[in-house]
Amino acid sequence: MKEGTPCPSPENTHSDTFKGAAFIAVWCSRIEIWIKQARSSLHLLGTVFLVYTFNSGSKLPIDRTAFAFDRLDGRHPYHLIITMVNPGKGMEDILINDIIRACLAIDAKAATIYEILSKSAEIADLKLFWQRMAMEERKHIRFWKELSRLAKKGMVPQVFESPEQVLADIRKIEEKTRELLEQSRKGPDITTGFLIAYRLEFYALHPAFETLFQSAIKLDGSRFNPEDEYEEHINHFIEAMNKYGRVTPEIELLGESLQRLWKNNKILARQSSIDELTGILNRRGFFNLVRPFSHLAQRNKYQIGILLIDIDHFKAINDRYGHQAGDRVLADVARILRENLRTSDVLGRYGGEEFIIFVAPLSPESLSTIAEKESLSAMAEKLRSKVEETTKRTIRVTISIGASYGRIETDAEKEVLRLIALADKCLYDAKEQGRNRIICFSALSPE
C-alpha cells in the first residue's frame, strides 16, 4: 500500500492535479473512521481536510471524491489520500441512502432495547407493553428497509436542504442510542427503564424522521402512512408513561413534556406547509415537496404533468351565498380532488380559488405523446366530473382545468415553472371558451 503523494494545499486543488496519484477506494461515508485506523500505518499527523469535486455546471457534487490532506513536516506540507465512492452514482443518492440506513440502525437498536426491557420487567402488563413497543419498532425497521431499497434504485429524492448536516445529526443519535442499549443491558428498574425509553423516543423526534415519512407517502404508492404509524407509536408510549406515572412524579412530567414536544412539532410542520382552510399543501409546501420529486423525474427521465384548476364563477358564489359558504366550497373541492388522486400525486392550493397538481411519473414506458395526453386528460376529466357530480346536492360547482406535461431535460425547477406557465395558459383558454372544460398542452416534441 502506497503511503500517498505529495500535493499542493487544498485551497489550490483541482481534480486534474491528482491524475495518476495512488488512491485507496473506500466508502466516503466511512472515511473518518478509515483515516483514524490508517493514520499510524500511513504516518499521518494533524488535521484532515475533506474537499469535494464538482461537475462543471452543477451546484451539487455528482461523482463524490473526497481528498484528505494531512500536514506532515515543512519539507512535505501535505500528503494525499483519494477516496472514491461509486463514481456512477450521484452524491444526492448516496447521502439520502446513508441517512435512511442510519435511521434503520437507530430503530434496530430501539427494538433490541425494548426486547431487553420486556425480559427484565416483572409486572405482566409492563412486560406486554415493552413487547408491543418492540413489535412497533420492527414495523419501522421494515419501513426503513423498503425505503432503502427504493433509494438504491434512485427512487427517493433528496428532501433535505443540508443532507450532510442531517446525516451528521442522525449518526450522533445512533451513537447515543448505542449507549442506551448498553444501559438497558444492566437490568434497569421501572424508573430507569422509562428514562432510557424516553431518551430513545426523544431522539426519534428529530425532524429528519418526519421529513422522510412525508416523502415516503408519495413514493411507490405507499399503502400506509408512516407518519400516522409513528404517531400511534408515540401515543402508546405516552399512555404508558401516564399509567406508570404514579410511581414517580418525574416520569409523569417526562411523559407530558414528550407529548407537548410531539404536538408542537406537528403544529409547526403544518403551519409551514399546510393551508389551514383546506387542509392541503399551501403554495410554499407544494413547491418544497415538488422540488425533490422534479429532480427525481429528471434523473429517471420520467415525464411529469401539471394541472391548474380554477373554481368557475367563485366570486358569484361568495356574493350569493356569503364568504363562509365560499370557504366551505373551497374545502369541499380540495377534499374531492384529494380523494380522487393517486398517492404519488401532489396537490396544493395555488392561491385564491386555484389549485395545482403535480403528476409524476406519467408512464415513462409509453410509446407516444398521444398516449400521455390521453392519460392526463382522462385524469383531469375524472376530477372535473367528480367535482360537478358531488356538489349537486349542495352548492353546484364546476371547475376549469389547464394541463401540461413534458420531460425535464435541464434545469428541473425552471422547467417545472415553464410547465406551470403552459398549464396557466391552457386554463385561461378553458375559461375563455366557456369554462367547465379541460385544455391540455404537450411540451414534448412529436416523435
Automatic annotation (TrEMBL):
PROSITE patterns with a match to the protein in the record: GGDEF
GO biological processes: cell adhesion involved in single-species biofilm formation; negative regulation of bacterial-type flagellum-dependent cell motility
Catalytic activity: 2 GTP = 3',3'-c-di-GMP + 2 diphosphate
SUPFAM superfamilies listed in its UniProt record: Ferritin-like, Nucleotide cyclase
EC assignment: 2.7.7.65
One of the Pfam families matching this protein, by short name: GGDEF
Molecular functions (GO terms): diguanylate cyclase activity
Positions of the GGDEF domain: 302-443
Gene Ontology cellular component annotations, sorted alphabetically: plasma membrane
UniProt protein name: diguanylate cyclase
Species of origin: Candidatus Nitrobium versatile
